[in-house]
Design brief:
26% strand, alpha+beta, elongated, four-stranded antiparallel sheet, disordered C terminus, GMP Synthetase, Chain A, domain 3
Length: 322
């Protein structure tokens, strides 16, 4: 077992973990930690707690100290400098008419390096810009290109649901999202309705995908015959949210009527093949078989999520939108 704390940095919804080194640290405390980018100022999002060794990603870097008033003042000064550096960087980009959009500026805690984050639809030759910025600030300069999703993460904002966008609040990794998910969930394929603030498919399409796929296995197929409490009918539409099925029912007088039933009240045959080799199953048999497999599927999905790559610095959007 190891004792760790969770720390968040400026503009990041992701939590990074560190060794508290026996310090008395509480949630919302400011700390100075060592990262691959150097010494960084952060805020504790998760207080010290114990985890098993297998859950720790080594090497676990240490917390250097709890931030002092001097550290907090230094961080405030850096934030002021970042605003000034952003204006200077934006002006120099416009002077050179470079096809790039400046997104954010980040000062190293000790002022040894300034990182300029930008987005662009193509590769940019910024060598002259880099030299100019180095002469202006007289320190190490890094220009880092980011994708549109990371751009939205840094800007923040509200989603179509009215809540702060997920990537800026709690989302740690960008899971692959495809248009097939929108089709599975019977959503409008109109781009503005299924696109997020970044202009790409909304990350939340992934949240309920497993549920929709599971329900598709146990609900009747469209245009197949089923037996309803009112007689034989043809399946027209399934509603996963209400767990109901719309059926065109043949009435005793020879007419047809469209009625809606809970899908569990229907008798139908599924096209799914079970492991024993049966070519057809009833709805109750199929639902029982699916429940038996649910734990295996959840384990697989969980493992996939844990192995998903972090896209904080990724410039390849094909990884995000399949």
């Amino acid at each position: 077992m190891k004792r760790i704390i969770g720390v968040k940095f400026k503009g990041s919804g992701k939590t990074y973990y560190f060794d508290p080194q026996g310090l008395d640290i509480k949630a919302e405390d400011s700390v100075i930690v060592e990262t691959a980018r150097g010494i960084v100022f952060g805020v504790v999002s998760e207080p010290p707690h114990m985890v098993i060794d297998e859950q720790v990603v080594n090497p676990l870097k240490p917390v250097i100290r709890i931030a002092t008033e001097t550290d907090k003042q230094q961080n405030a000064n850096n934030l002021d400098k970042e605003e000034e550096a952003f204006e200077i960087g934006q002006r120099k980009i416009e002077e050179r008419e470079l096809p790039m959009k400046l997104v954010d500026v980040e000062y190293a805690f000790n002022g040894s390096k300034i990182t300029f984050y930008f987005s662009s639809e193509s590769r940019v030759d910024f060598r002259e810009l880099l030299k100019d910025l180095s002469r202006t600030f007289k320190t190490s300069i890094e220009l880092r290109q980011i994708g549109v999703r990371d751009e939205a993460r840094k800007y923040g904002g509200l989603g179509s649901c009215g809540m702060p966008i997920c990537c800026n609040t709690f989302l740690t990794n960008f899971a692959p999202v495809s248009i097939k998910m929108a089709k599975t969930q019977n959503l409008s394929l109109s781009s503005p309705k299924i696109s997020g603030a970044c202009g790409r498919l909304m990350c939340c399409l992934k949240y309920e995908q497993d549920c929709y796929e599971s329900m598709q296995h146990i609900m009747p197929s469209i245009n197949t015959e089923c037996r309803t409490p009112d007689g034989i009918g043809t399946v027209l539409e399934n509603n996963v949210i209400t767990e109901t099925t719309k059926v065109k029912v043949a009435l005793p007088d020879g007419t047809f009527e469209i009625r809606t039933y809970p899908f569990r009240d229907l008798e139908y045959k599924s096209k799914c093949k079970c492991e024993s080799g049966n070519s057809e199953q009833t709805n109750s048999d199929n639902e029982a078989a699916l429940q038996g497999k649910s734990s295996k599927k959840s384990k697989k999905c969980s493992d996939a999520a844990e192995n998903a790559p972090c896209c904080d610095d990724c410039t390849c959007d094909n990884l995000i939108n399949e």
